[in-house]
Amino acid sequence: MTVKVRFAPSPTGKLHVGNARPALFNWFFAQRQGGSFLLRFDDTDRERSTEAFAEGILRDLDWLGLKPDRIERQSARLAEYQAAAERLKAEGRLYPCYETADELERQRSRQRARGLPPIYDRRALKQTDEERRALEEEGRRPHWRFLLPNFSDDPFSPSRTEESWHDLVRGEQAIDLASMSDPVLVREDGTFLYTLPSVVDDIEFGITHVIRGEDHVTNTGAQIALFKALGAEAPVFGHHNLLQSEAGEALSKRLASLSLQSLRDEGIEGLSVAIFATLVGTSEPIRALGSMSELAELFSLDKVSRTTARFSHTELLALNGQLVATLPYAAVAERLSVLGVAAEPAKAEAFWEAVRGNCGTVAEALDWWHVVAGPVEPVVADEDRDFLSEAASLLPAEPWDGATWGAWTGALKQATGRKGRSLFMPLRLALTGLASGPELAALLPVIGRPSTLARLNGS
């Protein structure tokens, strides 16, 4: 069997870090199994779905490093869904209901008051054609419910009917169809809810595995029944733990601060988000990795915890700093140029290698470039002026390399008797204007002798 998975976002908003988790899980599962990854836009919501959001989703997935093998849009497949609905109607598996939302809520309230579960009682099945025509003459239009196969002969006498599956994350699972209301598949206006188009697509596209959040567990029983009603075998399901905000809230499109676009604009690396969203809430520790390939090697649904995972912006920033510190110059050269790091390639590479360990994001390198290129306001204490004059007089001739700093400070130590902080801090303050920063052994050759001499002399 060739593995085929899908990621099915609705283009009604921006992807957030919680959406990245199922996208990555499906991608890595396909990669590990030699399968394919389908991107399906669930864009049947005509009012809220936009092409701008769809394009944004494609950009976000590309930023994460995910390349769909196939792209489909549900808006182009309405005829297929309608055909499936007509088939179910003809077989008596999809039936019209004329209750309003208020009427349904009153029914549920009465059931709760009697200590009964608020399950739809299928009263619409008792209506005659004449009664239905009368309701339509009043201006009512039906929504259509899928008749769950939870009875033997009489639909008004449901009995325990389990749909079971082996979940890739949760193990053996079962849902009693008698504990559920018949799900609505078609709205009053003729548009489709999620379930029917999703099942029709999974059948036609040959989806073998559905990996998604655990909030869909309760939907799975009805979906398996719908697969069977349409003459198909259900795919293998896996329901992973959800990613919540630091405050314990469910992540949603309204939390714009956690959108992938906002994280990208903040300077976070796509690989950092991929690592965090994949490894958080698993038995693997979160740490910097060199590539998506390395992350794929670590991925396994067996490692996913049953407890809810928490997204931490602070931890993501720390991870990003660790990752940035490992990035080779080739990976950032173009971005440094765009930022305004204007130097010949050899000097730019030396600069990056000197400062990357002090950058939380690649963009922060620009602050250090300003230190290197100047002007810098040296910080010189009165008691250090003679020491800095001595340092200027002992400054080695160019060319400079990584050994220059050690040779220079060694000569200074011998000449002045200074050592430790009293030796190094005045030099750092004079050369950078800052009390901390990149190792001066690496930074000194990038600053160069003329600038170094000028700063020692206070100009």
TrEMBL record:
Motif ('KMSKS' region): 250-254
Motif ('HIGH' region): 9-19
Catalyzed reaction equations: tRNA(Glu) + L-glutamate + ATP = L-glutamyl-tRNA(Glu) + AMP + diphosphate
Gene3D superfamilies: 1.10.10.350, HUPs
Top-rank taxon: Bacteria
Record keyword Ligase present: yes
InterPro entries in the record: aa-tRNA-synth_I_cd-bd, aa-tRNA-synth_I_codon-bd_sub2, aa-tRNA-synth_I_CS, aa_tRNA-synth_I_cd-bd_sf, Glu-tRNA-ligase_bac/mito, Glu/Gln-tRNA-synth, Glu/Gln-tRNA-synth_Ib_cat-dom, GluQ/Sye
GO terms for biological process, alphabetical: glutamyl-tRNA aminoacylation
GO cellular component terms given for this protein: cytoplasm
Protein residues bound to ATP: K253
Annotated compartments: Cytoplasm
Keywords, sorted A to Z: Aminoacyl-tRNA synthetase, ATP-binding, Cytoplasm, Ligase, Nucleotide-binding, Protein biosynthesis
Entry similarity comment: Belongs to the class-I aminoacyl-tRNA synthetase family. Glutamate--tRNA ligase type 1 subfamily.
Function: Catalyzes the attachment of glutamate to tRNA(Glu) in a two-step reaction: glutamate is first activated by ATP to form Glu-AMP and then transferred to the acceptor end of tRNA(Glu).
NCBIfam families: gltX_bact
Xref: PANTHER family: GLUTAMATE--TRNA LIGASE (PTHR43311), GLUTAMATE--TRNA LIGASE, MITOCHONDRIAL-RELATED (PTHR43311:SF2)
Protein name listed in UniProt: Glutamate--tRNA ligase
Gene designation per UniProt: gltX
